[in-house]
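Subgroup meeting minutes
Present: P.N., E.W., G.H.
Scribe: E.W.

1. P.N. recapped why we're keeping a running log of single-chain structure predictions: easier to compare across weeks, and new members can see raw inputs and outputs side by side.
2. G.H. added today's entry (163 aa).
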Amino acid sequence: MRYHLFSLILFTISVTAAAQAQEAVFLIRHAEQMLDVEDPPLTDQGLNRAKTWASIFRDAGIDVIYTSKKVRTKQTGAPIGSELNIPLKTMSRRDVTGLVNQIRKEHGDDVVLIVSHSKTLPKLLGAFVPSAKGPPIEKGDYDNLFVIVPKGENDATVLRFRY
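Output recorded in log:
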């Protein structure tokens, strides 16, 4: 199942990116978190999901990984960064426009992974693709993967998968 999902993603990126020669951006939410604690860490289920994300992204060609300052996003990104030998970069989840501009400026030819939060993901999607309205991410919804392949400054192919 994971192999087929990832093959479809890579095929879509290669076809679209070849025509545009631009980066791809993966957006995921942090994995399952503990409840009712300040800056909650991941649960055992969340840690397992993070390891699975690392396996899924193993051959994605990711060049840079951004997480927020929160423990749960760092714990989700850490196995991916470890698998790919890429250090995590910290971003502000409040400055969505600044992050998108930074990625466009500094990572124009890169494949970027952003590990963020349920309220930030729709904002990021809308900032990367103004014509796309990011869907709401429910409180218990940890399985979304959005793939953005830019086709110009204000246009992109957007794919949504679930794992």
